[in-house]
């Protein structure tokens, strides 16, 4: 069996969709956040795969930037989730409903 | 192809031997060892300290602060590694660019320091 | 960008001054906030911010005729950059003026320095997107803008509503970013480059023949539009908008209704028009349908809102719809490359740019008056502004101007903005889209005029107002009113200036030829 780029693209698409479903289904804010991180990481695989396929380095550089951005998101996100759970004593997104029509 | 198969044979024999040895020792223990269980013996080993504590351990927010700073500053190394690998090729411009980058990190570090984010109170 | 053939002679620093000044402003603010004693920080930091943005505006004038690209083509100083940067910097100055008194009033309870630092980084991110010639720059810029805005939304962290709005904004925002990133990955994979010019050339060439190839191009297109749709708050990706707008402190709402949206539209123009322009026949229908949905739903839901911040949130969704019409009116003929003769709808993008400038004056104005009212201890519902004209005639008059301008009545700036959008839609043979804009404006008249009617014809039952002095906020409101009254009359000149954006399609080839020539085929 030869490992072609399609397997890696398939892997990253699968991970991306697992993360996507997690965001849509789970109610725990931390899990939703982790699922988004999973989506970002999955895109990293796509970038590296395409980088190898097209013999360019742009994709690898982009993957590094996406990692750095994900770290910044993590710092901001954890701070917000912490501030919110202190107010409501909960991490369930259905409990956050002081704002609505 | 011949040697390839042989290698797998060796690995398989190793696995069977390891599994067999484990099962043999457990079986012997069960057969000839005396069995007198009590509460203390059944507990997980915790260095002699009683292992009762609340399930939801609470951490001081200081941990989160340090964790956030760590995540951000740690990940910045991701840009330094490729730079270090290509250091020779990048020349003077690459060196100056990295200095600017490090200066920005230092800027953030000084800010965190002056705002007291690094103090453990 | 081509990393295998890096040009190490260094960038042309002369091209990047406006953006560089805002960057230096952010760095200086970080140092200043760390070292200036607390009791003086308000005056110092406000002053530094305003001077910084004004300097950047000045440098922008100097940049406006450069038309060149540098940093391996990932930074572009073209007509689009200049006009978008103008919009963003004007919005930044009004944001500082609007929020200054609010912050001072909040006193010791909030860190003032952080506000200005986050504002500066957010503005920097938006400027980065508007001058981007590369997917990486667009992504990093969008994220820089968004991350700073999430924190600003939850800036008053003792207020549970602010944090809740920020958290919802954050979760949907990073979700959208992940989708956008995936779209960018596919765009890169199909063209073998992250440079917009190379994407334009390669995608155009690839689409010519193969059917399967087009399917994956469309996947990339769809992911990009969904990701950016969240950022500009287009229906059906608008769910975060009302909550985030209502939860955030009012001056922050003024800011976040303009600059992150401008960054989103900048990314859309760069990606769809400059990068994927050859596919315009594929994406503009999608944009047109989203535009109609967005303006209709935004206006209809706004009808039932009694909280003015929430009402303006839905109104800003509707205005996103009007702006998207400008994008939908962009069309390129068959064929690809940079043949400007092929492009029919360049006026669509000009109309979008002019609309965005008008929107800055109208929307920040409306939120500035709300900030003025809130500073005096009132709330932000319709009942709180009832009879405002009898107690505070000048703010009521200003609010009336902004409402009428948002509605689109001549000779105010909002009318001209809609006029150019409708004109562009008709030029692109999309009469139904023009009719939709007129219908949506008709619906919107009801809730905008209701605010005016309540202010002028209802009796005031609010008595316990505080008296505070808000000089900077007053100055901001006066300038915004003048802008609404006067800028419409100069609209022809401004639209001519925005027409310059078309050189975004040609710039890199003429000046930085070495970079653009290095096209690697997939």
Largest interface: A-C, 44 and 50 residues
- What's the pLDDT, averaged over the residues of chain B? 81
How helical, in percent, are the residues of chain C? over 70%
**Count of runs of 4 or more consecutive helical residues of chain B:** 5
Describe the largest sheet of chain C: 2 strands, antiparallel
- Number of structurally distinct domains of chain B: 1
Describe the structure concisely for a colleague:
The complex is a heterotrimer of chains A (101), B (121) and C (522). Chain A has a single domain (5-89), classed as Orthogonal Bundle (Helix Hairpins).
Q: Your description of this structure?
A:
The complex is a heterotrimer of chains A (101), B (121) and C (522). With 101 residues, chain A is mainly alpha-helical. Chain A has helices at 5-25, 29-54, 58-88. The mean pLDDT of chain A is 89. The model of chain B has no long low-confidence stretch (mean pLDDT 81). By secondary structure, chain B is an all-alpha fold. Chain C has one domain (3-517). In chain C, 73% of the residues lie in helices and 1% in strands. Chain C has helices spanning 17-35, 41-63, 79-106, 112-130, 135-153, 160-191, 196-209, 211-232, 240-247, 250-256, 259-275, 280-302, 308-328, 346-375, 382-385, 388-391, 393-407, 413-427, 431-457, 471-486, 491-499, 507-511, 513-517; strands spanning 68-70, 75-77. The longest helix of chain C has 32 residues, at 160-191. Chain C is globular, with a radius of gyration of 22 Å. Mean pLDDT of chain C is 87; it is low at 509-522. Chains in contact: A-B, A-C, B-C. At the B-C interface, helix 5 of B face helix 1 of C.
Topology:
The complex is a heterotrimer of chains A (101), B (121) and C (522).
Chain A: H1 5-25, H2 29-54, H3 58-88
Helix pairs in contact in A: 1-2, 2-3
Chain B: H1 2-32, H2 39-42, H3 61-75, H4 77-85, H5 87-114
Helix pairs in contact in B: 4-5
Chain C: H1 17-35, H2 41-63, E1 68-70, E2 75-77, H3 79-106, H4 112-130, H5 135-153, H6 160-191, H7 196-209, H8 211-232, H9 240-247, H10 250-256, H11 259-275, H12 280-302, H13 308-328, H14 346-375, H15 382-385, H16 388-391, H17 393-407, H18 413-427, H19 431-457, H20 471-486, H21 491-499, H22 507-511, H23 513-517
Antiparallel strand pairs in C: 1-2
Helix pairs in contact in C: 1-2, 1-4, 2-3, 2-4, 3-4, 3-10, 3-11, 3-14, 3-20, 4-5, 4-11, 5-6, 5-11, 6-7, 6-8, 6-9, 7-8, 7-11, 8-11, 9-13, 10-14, 12-13, 12-19, 13-14, 13-18, 13-19, 14-17, 14-18, 14-20, 14-21, 17-19, 17-20, 18-19
